[in-house]
Design a protein that fits this description.
Homohexameric ring arranged as a trimer of dimers. This is Ribonuclease PH. Its EC number is 2.7.7.56. It catalyses: tRNA(n+1) + phosphate = tRNA(n) + a ribonucleoside 5'-diphosphate. By secondary structure, the protein is of the alpha+beta class. It has a single domain (about 15-235), classed as GHMP Kinase, N-terminal domain (Ribosomal Protein S5, domain 2, 2-Layer Sandwich), CATH 3.30.230.70. It has helices spanning about 75-80, 85-100, 105, 125-145, 175-180, 210-235; strands at about 15-20, 25-30, 35-45, 60-65, 110-120, 160-165, 170-175, 185-190, 195-205. The strands form 2 sheets. The chain has a 5-stranded mixed β-sheet with strand order 1-2-3-5-4. The longest helix is centred in the C-terminal third of the chain and has 25 residues, at about 210-235. It starts with 13 loop residues before the first strand and ends with a helix.
């Protein structure tokens, strides 16, 4: 039934390669099927003005797609002079999602910026960015701990994200682009490793959905989340 031949509750193949770049304090190349995102973490001894002097740290994110990440070339947003609304929305989502798993007082007054660059897109780029971004963040925090710059781990819970939707009348896990482009219902689920919800983005795309279908999608998201956290933890051992 699915274009990829996967079962309804089957994730795409997921892999995370750490240390992909040598300069960033943390880096991870995440592959979720044919969606590939490079996530890098940068530590700075400063925080935004609105929390300066509070003793709290900050985690933020930036997101972008390479011109040939998709079938046709997209102009670089820098060449157009401004970021698009989709880019701004996604990077804000990544930042607030990752902050949900951080004890900002334990981080201290420093900022960690997660840069998420989509090398190849086949659906679910924001979910891959959040999942890979947490790994890059974890690697950067490990360096702070090793150096003695912080005394306790500020990452209280892993954070990951997965898409679910109604495709051809059936609830499916981890939509790729052919499914995403034709799904009657499409959603992104961001959760912590202990199953706490951070954010759910759900919308009907030509058909409505029931409470029972919503619950089915939530069950699929929890299954996918469990698999993603396993991969995250293996990558950061």
């Amino acid at each position: 039934m699915r274009p990829s031949g996967r079962k309804l509750d089957e994730m795409r193949a997921v892999s995370i390669e750490t240390g992909f770049t040598k300069h960033a304090e943390g880096s991870a190349l995440i592959k979720m099927g044919d969606t590939h995102v490079l996530c890098t973490a940068t530590i700075e001894d400063r925080v935004p003005p609105f929390i300066k002097g509070s003793g709290l740290g900050w985690v933020t994110a930036e997101y972008g797609m390479l011109p040939r990440a998709t079938n046709t070339r997209m102009r670089r947003e820098a060449a157009m002079g401004k970021q698009g609304g989709r880019t701004v929305e996604i990077q804000r989502l990544i930042g607030r999602s990752l902050r949900a798993g951080v004890d900002r007082s334990a981080l201290g007054e420093r900022q960690i910026t997660i840069d998420c660059d989509v090398l190849q897109a086949d659906g679910g780029t924001r979910c891959a960015s959040i999942t890979g971004g947490w790994v890059a963040l974890k690697l950067a925090v490990n360096k702070l701990l090793k150096a003695g710059d912080i005394v306790s781990d500020p990452l209280v819970d892993p954070v990951a994200a997965v898409s679910c939707g109604i495709y051809a009348g059936q609830p499916v896990l981890d939509l790729d682009y052919p499914e995403d482009s034709e799904a009657g219902v499409d959603g992104n689920f961001i959760l912590t490793g202990t199953g706490r919800l951070i954010e759910v983005q759900m919308s009907a795309e030509g058909q409505t959905f029931s409470r029972d279908q919503m619950n089915q999608l939530m069950d699929l998201a929890e299954k996918g989340m469990s698999e993603l956290v396993t991969v995250q933890k293996a990558a950061t051992l």
